[in-house]
Design a protein that fits this description.
Layout lengths: L2 H5 L2 E5 L10 H15 L3 E3 L6 E2 L2 E2 L5 H11 L2 E6 L6 H13 L7 E6 L22 E5 L2 H21 L4
Parallel strand pairs: 1-2, 1-5, 5-6, 6-7
Antiparallel strand pairs: 3-4
Helix pairs in contact: 2-5
C-alpha cells in the first residue's frame, strides 16, 4: 500500500472539545490525533475543519446536523472518550448516530481511555447504543498510545477499503 491509497480514507475524529478543568487539553489531543493521521497521508478532520461533505454544503447546518452528515461522509469515525473531557455532547452524538444509522456501525470505532466507565446509555453489556452493530472498542492508556491505536485502526480500515471488505 502506498501513501496515495491512505489519502483515500476519510477519518472523522470526534471527541470532547472542552475539558473538565476548562483547559484545552482534550481539544489539543484531538488536534494532535488529526495532525498525526494527516501527516501519514489520511484525510483526517474535526467537524470544524469541513464546510462540505462531498457535494453537501454544511455551512448552514447546526452542529448536530453537520455531525450527522460528516459521519455518513467519512470512511472511519473515531469517537474519542477521555477521563478529562466533557462527554455529554459526544454521548448524545454517538447515541443519535447509532439509532439513526445502525447500518453504519461498522464505520465507527470507540477509543476509550483506560479505566473510564461508560454510562448505561452507551454500555454494550447493559444494552446501550454500543450494542447496536456492535461497535468496535479499543482501550488506550495515554496520549501516545491513543495515537498509535488510531494509526493502526486507520491502517486496518485502509486495507479493508482497498480490498472492498468491511473491517
Amino acid at each position: 500500500m502506498n501513501r496515495s491509497d491512505a489519502k483515500l480514507l476519510r477519518i472523522f475524529v470526534l471527541g470532547p472539545f472542552r475539558s473538565i478543568d476548562n483547559s484545552k487539553r482534550d481539544f489539543d489531543r484531538l488536534t494532535a490525533l488529526k495532525k498525526r493521521l494527516t501527516g501519514l497521508g489520511y484525510d483526517a478532520f474535526l467537524s470544524l475543519d469541513r464546510d462540505t461533505a462531498g457535494k453537501t454544503n454544511l455551512r448552514k447546518l447546526s452542529p448536530r446536523q453537520k455531525t450527522l452528515e460528516l459521519v455518513k461522509f467519512a470512511d472511519l469515525n473515531l469517537f474519542i472518550f477521555t477521563k478529562t473531557g466533557i462527554r455529554n455532547g459526544l454521548v448524545a452524538e454517538l447515541t443519535e448516530v447509532q439509532t439513526r444509522y445502525p447500518t453504519l456501525a461498522w464505520k465507527h470505532v470507540v477509543l476509550l481511555e483506560k479505566d473510564l466507565g461508560l454510562s448505561s446509555i452507551l454500555d454494550e453489556s447493559q444494552g446501550g447504543v454500543m450494542s447496536v452493530g456492535p461497535l468496535k472498542q479499543v482501550v488506550f492508556d495515554n496520549d501516545l498510545e491513543l495515537l498509535e491505536v488510531a494509526e493502526q485502526v486507520a491502517y486496518n480500515y485502509t486495507l479493508a477499503k482497498a480490498t472492498g471488505t468491511k473491517p
